[in-house]
From TrEMBL:
Species of provenance: Kocuria marina subsp. indica
UniProt keyword annotations, A-Z: Antiport, Cell membrane, Ion transport, Membrane, Sodium, Sodium transport, Transmembrane, Transmembrane helix, Transport
UniProt GO MF annotations: sodium:proton antiporter activity
Cross-referenced NCBIfam families: NhaA
Official protein name in the record: Na(+)/H(+) antiporter NhaA
Keyword Transport: yes
Protein purpose: Na(+)/H(+) antiporter that extrudes sodium in exchange for external protons.
Bilayer topology term: Multi-pass membrane protein
Family as reported in the entry's similarity comment: Belongs to the NhaA Na(+)/H(+) (TC 2.A.33) antiporter family.
UniProt catalytic activity: Na(+)(in) + 2 H(+)(out) = Na(+)(out) + 2 H(+)(in)
UniProt keyword annotation of Ribosomal protein present: no
Length: 430
């Protein structure tokens, strides 16, 4: 969803700009995932799990948690803050602002959530799984933005812009649904006094960012000294309220102002663009370079246990349901919903790309990593048999979706590259 790939070298150093790219987050995520799997299944496995389960933080105010818990509940809030900024931008001045233009990918995203969930439940009910296994129904419903966009950026450099727009809009809505699921399904009880305190601080955050937007834009230090402490306390209040703390990041992102009809390419922090793109510009390197890989490193590590462990995961309906949901449910749900909308309503698929092109993208959308791992932890807990098998299912399903979808998209990319070489612009076919 970000425009980071278009950022010029005139805004920050070359390494910082590298960290802002769409592909960087996916690359670091993949490296961290592989590293975690290798270490967890090596003689260093005990060191890895010992580090992940080490408790850090002050014991007061309930802030002493394991390193893994801090990665998923603390650091990941930064990732979701950027998600909130992107969602706000899309609603105010993006693809989701024009409902007629957005309706097809919006409905397709809903299909891409519903069908994987039904497939997961179907697999587990058919296998006679115990009731606790059904708690993971939401795991295969998520699409990993960073990873999916990275695949499209790496293998689809010549694709029509409309294809990337479709996938980004799909990912935006998918994220919104995933956030709602986390907030309403995985919240057991709510402490309303803490939630009320968070609401007060959110209102203060909204007031400051709207009333003094130019001040925060002109003086970078003010965001760190004023907005960051408010954000941290809001995060703590949401955490203590019983709602998953990452929701605080999304809500804070939604409080930041977005200006309409301004340049979408963030080449420098221009006050005309508003505070939302400026904060995204500042925080994106932190998210791509640190937050995403650290979360992936401490979440993806699972001791497979050799061939017996692989067999155990491969025969667990939880893992099978996740793989089937990601690899089959996502393309069936997304493609089916999009085709029905195009066939029976006034909504239309963009003519710049074909239905086969869309099919490749729907498989890429089956890459469910970051949010899927988070939902897996919320569903089964860290270190439980179903939790470990769910991670194996997420990794296998996401890897297969990346390989198969990436191959299909790369094949189509050759066609569009040849068209551009011949002087035909695929972005003007509509």
């Amino acid at each position: 969803m970000s425009t980071d790939t278009q950022t010029s070298s005139g805004s920050g150093g070359s390494f910082t700009n590298f960290l802002r790219r769409d592909t960087t987050g996916g690359l670091f995520l993949l490296i961290a995932m592989v590293l975690a799997l290798v270490i967890a299944n090596s003689p260093w496995g005990e060191v890895y799990f010992g580090l992940r389960d080490t408790e850090v933080g002050p014991s007061v105010a309930g802030l002493q948690h394991t390193v893994g818990h801090w990665a998923s509940d603390g650091l990941l809030a930064i990732f979701f803050f950027l998600t909130g900024l992107e969602l706000k931008t899309e609603f105010v001045d993006g693809e989701l602002h024009n409902i007629r233009k957005a309706i097809l990918p919006v409905v397709a995203a809903c299909g891409g959530v519903l069908v994987p969930a039904l497939i997961f439940l179907g697999v587990n009910l058919a296998a006679g799984s115990e009731r606790t296994a059904l708690h993971g129904w939401a795991i295969p419903t998520a699409t990993d933005i960073a990873f999916a966009v990275s695949v499209l950026a790496v293998v689809g450099s010549s694709l029509p812009v409309a294809m990337r727009t479709f996938l980004l809009t799909l990912a935006v809505v998918d994220d919104l649904i995933a956030i709602a699921i986390i907030a309403f399904v995985y919240t057991e009880s709510v402490n309303f006094p803490f939630l009320g305190g968070a609401a007060v601080l959110l209102a203060l955050y909204w007031f400051l960012t709207h009333k003094f937007m130019g001040w925060f834009m002109a003086r970078h230090w003010t965001a760190w000294v004023i907005l960051l402490p408010i954000g941290v306390v809001t995060w703590w209040l949401v955490y203590e309220s019983g709602i998953h703390a990452t929701i605080a990041g999304v809500l804070l992102g939604f409080m930041v102002p977005v200006l309409k009809q301004k340049p979408r390419i963030i080449r420098q922090e221009d006050p005309r663009m508003g505070l939302a793109p400026a904060l995204e510009h500042r925080f994106r390197p932190l998210s791509n370079g640190f937050v995403i890989p650290v979360f992936a490193f401490f979440s993806a590590g699972v001791a497979v246990g050799g061939w017996d462990g692989v067999t155990s995961a491969a025969t667990d309906p939880v893992a099978l349901g996740i793989v089937a949901g990601l690899l089959l449910g996502k393309p069936i749900g997304i493609f089916g919903a999009a085709w029905l909308m195009d066939r029976f309503t006034s909504a239309e698929k963009d003519r710049d790309y074909t239905w086969f092109d869309m099919f490749g993208m729907t498989i890429v959308a089956g890459i469910g990593f970051t949010v899927s791992l988070l939902v897996g932890e919320l569903s089964f807990g860290e270190g439980s048999p179903h939790g470990d098998h769910a991670k194996v299912g997420i990794l296998c399903g996401s890897l297969l979706a990346a390989l198969i979808g990436g191959t299909l998209v790369a094949t189509r990319n050759k066609k569009y590259k040849a068209m551009r070489t011949a002087g035909h612009d695929p972005d003007t076919l509509d």
